[in-house]
Amino acid sequence: MQPLSIANDVFWLGDIDFESRDFHGYSRSPLGTTYNAYLIKDEKNALFDTVKEGHGPILLEKLRQVLPPEKVDYIVVNHLEPDHSGALPLLMEACRPEALICSPLGKKSLEGHFGSRDWPVRVVTSGETLSLGGRSVRFIEARMLHWPDSMFSYIPEEKLLISNDAFGQNIASTARFADEVEPALLRKSLSEYYHNIILPYSAQVLKILDAIAGQGLSVEILAPDHGLIFRRPQDVASTLEAYRDFALQRPRKRALIIYDTMWRSTERMAHALCRGLADNGVETVVLNLKQNHHSAVMTELAACGLLAVGSPTHNNGILPLVAASLTYLKGLRPKNRIGAAFGSYGWSGENTKILGEYLSAMDMPQPVDPLKCPFVPDAAVLNACEAMGASLAAALEKHCAAACS
């Protein structure tokens, strides 16, 4: 694609990665992704972020169509993760800018990723400004959104916020603007990205949203480093509000059941539990972990107030896919959920105790005792699973009411 003007003398120079499915090595990007870089032409010219290594030549070619690379005065690195800084050596060599600008912790990350280089690094802190001539750039440290080095670049004359990973989505599309795609797709992708990347830092999200509001920053264009750009004020406002909603993690009257199974005994229990929940008015999603990646689990959990986990006993423990998914969820630190444990076993029955310990480690109260059965569940066990679902439905309703009071 060609360079794209998003405002007067402001250009998108990124690249689209249609093939991406593995994002950051731990999450999935089922719709691909983009690596967004931005150029502002003024008396001084500034390039904001680069792209993943391998995509650098495309960025450089797009830059050449707008401006000779040697005319770039500043390269601003809002975030040093390799999908945004991988092409930095190529761009530094081509542009030889007056300054490479980063946050205080960005300088440390620069050295960690690229070693000692003779680059003209300039460190900026929150509130500092950089004049480009007719425009200025105000830097806002956004630590842990989602790395310590992260910062935003705000251009008040354009009411433009360049926000690196915050407000991003994994969508590979020839559309560049949020208003060019289906709102439901955009909201799902925004949520998927938040809950697999940003969620552990929800407290910092609320602080930065309050800071944007408190400092009276008017944002009419919101330009993240992944996915689509928000160019309509109403889309910007709804995206900021969506992030606040995500960060508050209010529980919803919806349930997620995840499980793995050897000989389908735990699977039968999972579906009986689902019937008990659904028959008592709780929308429920059931995910077999053999068919669903742990990032898909987190995406579903985002809209659920209850997590029920099932596994048979395996080598005095639980099945590996269950352990891996729970470890992943624990690292993302979801809040305001309740939990439940169930499963079958053969000659030893440690499974539900271990599952309960994982749930407790995530601060998920378990209002119903774990349910386990030896070997194959009979009709009585399946009835007990349905009754468990009914009890959990009542507990979930009470939990949601208490959280909203």
Main-sheet strand order equals: 1-2-7-8-9-10-11
**What is the general shape?**
elongated
Q: Compute the average pLDDT.
A: 96
- Share of helix, binned: 25-40%
Question: What is the H level of CATH, i.e. the homologous superfamily of the largest domain?
Answer: Ribonuclease Z/Hydroxyacylglutathione hydrolase-like
Which CATH first-tier class of the largest domain would you pick? Alpha Beta
How many helices in DSSP terms? 12
CATH topology of the largest domain: Metallo-beta-lactamase, Chain A
Unreliable stretches covering 5 or more consecutive residues? none
Tally of separate domains: 2
**What's the total number of strands?**
23
Amount of beta strand: 15-25%
Structural class by SSE content: alpha/beta
State the separation between the terminal residues, measured CA to CA: 50 Å
Return Rg in Å.
24 Å
Q: What's the CATH architecture name of the largest domain? A: 4-Layer Sandwich
Largest beta-sheet details: 7 strands, mixed
Question: What does this protein structure show overall?
Answer:
By secondary structure, the chain is of the alpha/beta class. The chain has two domains: 4-248, Ribonuclease Z/Hydroxyacylglutathione hydrolase-like (Metallo-beta-lactamase, Chain A, 4-Layer Sandwich), CATH 3.60.15; 255-404, Flavodoxin domain (Rossmann fold), CATH 3.40.50. The protein is 37% helix and 21% strand. The strands form six sheets. A seven-stranded mixed beta sheet has the order 1-2-7-8-9-10-11. The chain has a five-stranded mixed beta sheet with strand order 12-13-14-15-16, with no helix packed on it. The protein has a five-stranded parallel beta sheet with strand order 18-17-19-22-23, with helices on both faces. The longest helix is centred in the last third of the chain and has 26 residues, at 379-404. The chain starts with a strand and ends with a helix. The relative contact order is 0.09.
